[in-house]
Automatic annotation (TrEMBL):
Record-given protein name: Glyoxalase
InterPro entries: Glyas_Bleomycin-R_OHBP_Dase (IPR029068), Glyas_Fos-R_dOase_dom (IPR004360), VOC_core (IPR037523)
UniProt organism field: Planosporangium thailandense
Name of a matching Pfam family: Glyoxalase
Signal peptide, first to last residue: none
Superkingdom of this protein's organism: Bacteria
VOC domain span: 6-127
Lineage: Bacteria, Bacillati, Actinomycetota, Actinomycetes, Micromonosporales
Length: 134
């Protein structure tokens, strides 16, 4: 069973480590945990994100949210709002949103999609009903 001391881990490709650091640290406010010649590890909202250098991962075409993306489902609306303000303040490129999905249903939630410099798509969201966070 996962405890509060455990971290979820996800790894994604990046074509440029410097651009990944700029986006995740100076854009989204993630903390730089470790940097090597072939990868960068971030404290990404309390979990571990690793961007592995893959020079063939140069973006070609437009990023698409489906079928592959990752991100954070915020438990508190205030945290989602804070992220929206950060995205606006730092003028991060938005793939889509902010939107309200499934309006008027139990699954209603606010969402925003971003793409990092290697077209890895991130979704941040908040459900009004806290039972749907997972």
């Amino acid at each position: 069973m996962r405890s509060t001391h455990d971290a979820f881990h996800v790894a994604v490709p990046t074509h440029n480590l410097d651009e990944a650091v700029r986006f995740y640290v100076f854009g989204l406010g993630a903390k730089l945990a470790r940097r090597y010649d072939d990868r960068v590890t971030f404290d990404f909202f309390g979990d571990q994100l690793v961007c592995h250098l893959d020079e063939s991962a140069v973006p070609d075409g437009e990023p698409a949210a489906y079928p592959r993306h990752f991100g954070v489902t915020f438990a508190r609306a205030e945290d989602f709002d804070r992220l929206l303000r950060l995205v606006e303040h730092r003028k991060l490129s938005v793939l889509s949103g902010p939107d309200t999905r499934f309006e008027g249903t139990a699954e209603q939630h606010r969402t925003i999609f971003l793409a990092d410099p290697s077209n890895n798509v991130l979704e941040f969201k908040h459900y009004e009903d806290p039972r749907l966070q997972y």
